[in-house]
Design goal:
mainly alpha
């Protein structure tokens, strides 16, 4: 802002110069006051933003910590799940092996029982054959003895009639 001063005796008009300086000072002070207020507002806003940044950094750190904790928990849970699955597989394999062994044992037992049954059946058949043979032998012996005794009896009768006794 350029101001033209009127010329007075011994230089410029003093009142105009003082008025100009007063106006300049007032304008400068107003501008300075506005700048100070703006600066205070900016400092407040800056402090508020810094506070928000600190709060957000704190929350970010908490979230990062939680994320790390959750990640570790998930990893542990996954490992535990894998361990449980593996343990289950091992138990199933052991149970299957045990069942297979039990099945083989029962198959062998069944085979042995069948063998014993066949052997027993063979023994029974042999005994029955021997029994039938013995029965037939005894029956034929009995028949022979009956026939022999009947023959002796008839001979004895015939001899009785003749008076001679025969001893057999």
């Amino acid at each position: 802002m350029k101001k033209m001063f009127s010329i007075a005796i011994l230089g410029y008009n003093r009142r105009e110069v003082e008025q100009y300086l007063s106006d300049m000072r007032r304008d400068y002070e107003e501008e300075l006051s506005k700048k100070k207020e703006r600066m205070l507002e900016l400092v407040e806003e800056n402090n508020r933003i810094k506070s928000q940044i600190k709060e957000l950094e704190k929350k970010l750190a908490e979230f990062s910590e939680r994320e790390a904790y959750i990640s570790k928990a998930l990893v542990r849970a996954e490992q535990k799940a894998q361990a449980i699955i593996e343990e289950g597989r091992q138990k199933i394999a052991a149970e299957m092996y045990q069942l297979e062994m039990e099945k083989n044992k029962w198959k062998a037992r069944c085979k042995e029982i069948r063998r014993q049954l066949l052997e027993f059946e063979h023994m029974v058949c042999t005994l029955m054959e021997n029994f039938y043979s013995e029965i037939n032998y005894l029956k034929s012996k009995e028949l022979s003895e009956e026939l022999f005794t009947e023959g002796d009896c008839e001979e004895g009768r015939q001899e009785e009639g003749s008076g001679l006794l025969s001893v057999s």
